[in-house]
Write a structure and sequence with these properties.
Keywords: Membrane, Transmembrane, Transmembrane helix. This protein has about 50 residues and is mainly α. The chain is built from three helices and no strands.
Length: about 50
């Protein structure tokens, strides 16, 4: 699908055709950011369930 076909389809759908791709990209970006934070941020002992 070329860019022109994609934009014409989005235009035919009205405002919903522009909101849906932006919402999907935003959710994807938030998911990637949460995964990176989970993988690379140091965890404290309280997060591991270890009690002192």
């Amino acid at each position: 699908m070329t860019t022109n076909e994609c934009f014409s389809m989005m235009g035919a759908m009205g405002w919903l055709g522009w909101i849906m791709p932006l919402a999907v990209l935003a959710l994807l970006g938030l998911g990637i950011a949460a995964l990176i934070k989970y993988l690379f941020m140091p965890r404290s002992q309280s997060d591991r369930g270890v009690r002192s």
